[in-house]
């Protein structure tokens, strides 16, 4: 007869605790993607099938839990930005980064809110990822312009605004875009950036916000 001793009980407790932690992270990832940064702690706990007290014991606060999930999401994008810089063809690199940005924002409401500054100040870790994205985008646009592949009167900030526009997925004038509309929009944007036959751009380019998103 095998009796469970204190060591066995401790191992089981640690394993159960780990499962709850992973369920909370997975539930938060889904909830934030669907509902955004204002998702309720009770909703996350319910999705994870744990008590709300477990959430606070494991992570301290809902905001701390969401922070972990956001760091993971924006970290994937900033890693893709570094890979985009390795492309020999600057336009391919730029297209890759804009694609990752657009697809990520369309599929993840929380990521979109994070990159557009919804919800106030971000942690230093998230701001660092944001700086990485800004720097990569600036370099990619400059490289593409130096090669003559895109018009030279746009700034990298113009391109950042265009990338956000490609991620628009809501209904407009009674028109419901398909899930892959961002791909079509981005293709039009990239074609519009090419220099042949382009007319001068009106107005002035965008500038940094007082506190950049992130």
Automatic annotation (TrEMBL):
HTH tetR-type domain: residues covered: 18-77
Region (Disordered): 194-214
The keyword Transcription regulation is assigned to this record: yes
DNA-binding region, residue intervals: 40-59
Keywords: DNA-binding, Transcription, Transcription regulation
PANTHER family in alphabetical order: HTH-TYPE TRANSCRIPTIONAL REGULATOR BETI, HTH-TYPE TRANSCRIPTIONAL REGULATOR RUTR
Protein name: TetR/AcrR family transcriptional regulator
């Amino acid at each position: 007869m095998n009796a469970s001793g204190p060591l066995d009980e401790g191992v089981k407790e640690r394993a159960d605790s780990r499962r709850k932690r992973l369920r909370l992270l997975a539930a938060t990832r889904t909830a934030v993607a669907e509902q955004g940064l204002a998702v309720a702690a009770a909703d996350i706990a319910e999705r994870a099938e744990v008590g709300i007290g477990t959430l606070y014991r494991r992570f301290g606060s809902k905001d701390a839990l969401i922070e972990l999930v956001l760091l993971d999401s924006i970290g994937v994008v900033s890693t893709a930005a570094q890979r985009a810089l390795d492309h020999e063809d600057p336009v391919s690199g730029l297209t890759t980064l804009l694609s990752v940005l657009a697809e990520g924002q369309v599929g993840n409401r929380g990521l979109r809110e994070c990159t557009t500054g919804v919800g106030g100040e971000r942690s230093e870790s998230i701001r660092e990822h944001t700086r990485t994205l800004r720097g990569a985008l600036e370099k990619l646009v400059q490289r593409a312009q130096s090669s003559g592949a895109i018009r030279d009167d746009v700034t990298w900030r113009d391109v950042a605004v265009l990338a956000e526009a490609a991620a628009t997925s809501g209904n407009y004038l009674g028109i419901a875009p398909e899930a892959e509309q961002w791909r079509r929009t981005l293709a039009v944007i990239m074609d519009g950036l090419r220099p042949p036959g382009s007319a001068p751009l009106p107005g002035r380019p965008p500038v940094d916000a007082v506190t950049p998103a992130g």
